[in-house]
Amino acid sequence: MTIASCTLRRLTAVVAGAAAVSVALSGCLYAQIPAEDSGSESAAPTTGAEPATDGVPEELLPFYDQQLEWGSCGDGFQCTTVTAPLDWENPEAGEIDLAVVRQPALSGQAQGSLLTNPGGPGGSGVSFILDSVDYAVGQALQESFDVVGWDPRGVGESTAVRCFDAAEMDAFLYDIPEAERGTEEWEAELEARAEGFADACEANSDGILEFITTEQSSRDLDLLRGVLGETELDYLGYSYGTFLGATYAKNFPGRVGRLVLDGAIDPSTSGEDVGVTQAVGFEAALRTYMQACLDGGTGEGCPFTGTVDDAMGDLAALLAAVDANPLRSSQDDRLLGADSLMTGVIAALYNEANWPYLTEALAGALEGDSSIAFLLADSYNGREGGEYVDNSTEAFNAYNCMDYPAESEQAIEETEQRIAEEAPTIAPYWTGASVCEYWPYEPTGVREEIAAEGAPPILVIGTTGDPATPYEWAEALADQLASGVLLTYEGEGHTAYNGASTCVDEAVEAFFTDEIVPEDGLVCS
């Protein structure tokens, strides 16, 4: 996860990513499966339900009183736009638009609206539903609920953060510094790149950067609840979406309906601790992948032999070799450096279904072929055909630079030392310059425990082998929440609901449809 820092070095932008799925040779990791027909007939334009405005302050009623006009956007989906204040603390300061999509309940008799967030921060909830509704939400919930996705403020089709064009983004994400890694000159190159990105975001985002925060977005979420006519919020959040959901519960405990937080983030964890935990998590996932590769479980042609330690050593040698002699793409003349190769590795580790691609990518890189490694890195970065299909990189940085307080230089140095010791293969490619160092606004977020006193039971799901949002974060969040209920999935990959385990699926769906709260501590495998 990108985090704020007041020093010249910091952790790279890795993730509290969206619910990652199997790479489909195109698209990005926020919704990487092909678009599917929902099975519904195209819906005619319709007027929304009466807004639910009980308890809403008078100065906010013009926003909560909006009457939504839904229009068909194909394959049974309906789309609309909701107007929100730019700044909830000063609602007269300006307005932004929120793009919203819904699939009406397939049964024709909705229990209510189920709002979903795919994570990020920066993942498009509109694309999540339009392109992959069957991955986002299981069939039982599609039958029972109007499934609603939206692009949070700063994201996608909503009023969005804008920074670079495609060529500039290519340079930012893929260009290889001329100086030797680790030198002062290398750091200076990365600092200049980070400063240029931050300056471009301020210049091109029309004054919204200060207000791209999870706190503000949680207020948007309550607005969506209200204009949809729901007195309580039913919500399914993945990864970063768990932090958004927990923040909502903190701010509006009396309006919580049924919340499921899958792939949970610990809201009290500092940015530096996030970086360490994720680095260690991905190192562990990489070792698990290596064992499977050596055992023949990741497709044909595992390029490594010997023990897991031997394989990790060979991978470290490959990364160093690519760092010294980048591989040229046969597609577009880009160079694959070690940082981009590591991005591809990280992308593949989100889900076991991606492991055969990782095997192919690493085998190819050993032979001088960068094509599959670029495929994985491009998928992570939202790059398709030389263009960027979303603004996830811009929004990701915008949220994290405002959400995470700056850490001391000593804290960052200690963090880098811990990563070097506990994640030695990943460590050389996990540090760099901070975009947040040059962000035009000071962070306003705080890192603290969330109890959400007064909220009904909130279901928190953690996966024991999750590298992006490690299991201990789910344990921590469930323990912090006054009404937290922990469900554990024993397995690999990022997030658990909808396909990883029938046990998990049944528990989640019974919670939403029948209000059956699973036993706290339930373990599924």
From TrEMBL:
Range of residues in the leader sequence: 1-31
Signal keyword on record: yes
Source species: Microbacterium betulae
AB hydrolase-1 domain mapped to chain residues: 114-293
Name listed for the protein in its UniProt record: Alpha/beta hydrolase
Domain annotation Peptidase S33 tripeptidyl aminopeptidase-like C-terminal: ranges: 426-524
One Pfam family per UniProt: Abhydrolase_4
Top-level taxon of the source organism: Bacteria
Family membership noted in the UniProt record: Belongs to the peptidase S33 family.
Entry annotated with the keyword Cell membrane: no
Keywords noted in UniProt: Hydrolase, Signal
An annotated Gene Ontology molecular function: hydrolase activity
